[in-house]
Specification:
Blueprint lengths: L21 E4 L3 E5 L2 E6 L2 E6 L5 E4 L4 E2 L1 H9 L3 E5 L6 E5 L7 H11 L1 H16 L9 H23 L18 H23 L16 H8 L2 H16 L4 H15 L2 H12 L2 E4 L2 E4 H11 L1
Parallel strand pairs: 1-5, 2-6, 5-7
Antiparallel strand pairs: 2-3, 3-4, 7-8, 9-10
Length: 300
């Protein structure tokens, strides 16, 4: 018997379909308005239908009413409190999910050394395909990852005709950071927010990471890293090339928003998480990988 129930039908999942995916606001007063939000500032008033985004990023200077928070929760929208320009993550509020099956499965895999290494290997296989080293040694796996990420930075710099020195950002010294590293930091923050929303929306814990440890967002960092070479790095580099005289931070956020929608990122994240944890997507259903492979072998 499967001790960790798998959500059997995609229709039972909380709402995580693509839309605007996220919205960043700062220096606004937010209240409920009909079935959405009303954001007011010195520049005017804007109506925001909650159905159009999965994550609301609340920046400095925002006040929000309890009615607005309740509306967001009812609509299945995650709320995260971030620093200026969305660069630092402070806290999150998440919509409810009714089943603990996903959390049980994650905790079991996290606490069992053999299952844990299986999850890590699946993560690297999803990320690098057949080029992922077949090793149970974390140092070997992390070394391979580091080399691939370093090469991705250099390759993207050549493609974008930019000069790449190193990934460098000192907390509290944002203005001293070069433009390319600013773009990477903002893009990373956007990916963290989307991954965090997907994780909590389907009932996993953002704290139980398999590669990263000791942080309340360890699993968020694990998942976000999976898209570093394929999404975060190219999006950040391309945004810098295109921003011109526009503010870097807002340009990168818009680029991430559009890329999230165009590439259906939210549609990739949840199935990837399931596959890492030993659950396969078969048509419109999620089933245990081991049970599914056993069934296929019997049928053959």
């Amino acid at each position: 018997m499967n001790r960790f129930p798998v959500r059997q039908d995609l229709s039972t999942l909380p709402r995580v379909e693509d839309g605007w995916t996220f919205l960043y606001l700062e220096r606004q007063q937010i209240d409920q308005e009909n079935f959405g939000l009303r954001a007011a500032s010195k520049d005017g008033v804007v109506s925001l239908p909650c159905s159009l985004f999965n994550v609301l990023m609340i920046g400095p200077g925002v006040t929000i009413t309890s009615a607005a928070i309740t509306m967001l929760a009812d609509q299945g929208c995650s709320v995260i409190w971030v620093g200026e320009n969305g660069v630092r993550f402070y806290a999150n509020g998440s919509p409810k999910t009714n089943s603990s099956g996903n959390l049980q499965r994650q905790a079991h895999a996290w606490g069992d050394p053999q299952e844990r290494i299986k999850v890590i290997r699946r993560m690297y296989t999803l990320r690098y395909g057949t080029d992922s080293p077949m090793s149970d040694n974390m140092a070997t796996l992390r070394g391979h990852e580091g080399a691939r990420v370093k090469q991705a930075y250099m390759d993207q710099a050549v493609k974008a005709n930019l000069v790449w020195k190193a990934r460098r950002w000192v907390r509290g010294q944002w203005d001293a950071t070069d433009d390319l590293n600013k773009c990477l930091s903002v893009a990373s923050s956007c990916v963290y927010g989307l991954c965090h929303a997907a994780i909590v929306a389907v009932g996993f814990s953002p704290a139980l990471g398999f590669i990263h440890q000791g942080d309340m967002r360890s699993f968020v960092l694990d998942i976000a890293d999976m898209y570093r070479e394929s999404f975060t790095i190219p999006t950040a580099f391309d945004a810098l090339v295109k921003c011109g005289s526009s503010p870097i931070e807002s340009t990168v956020r818009r680029a991430c928003r559009d890329a999230f929608r165009d590439q259906n990122m939210i549609g990739k994240i949840v199935p990837d998480i399931y596959e890492m944890l030993g659950v396969a997507r078969v048509g419109s259903r999620f089933v245990d990988i081991t049970a599914w492979e056993s069934l296929k072998s019997k049928s053959a």
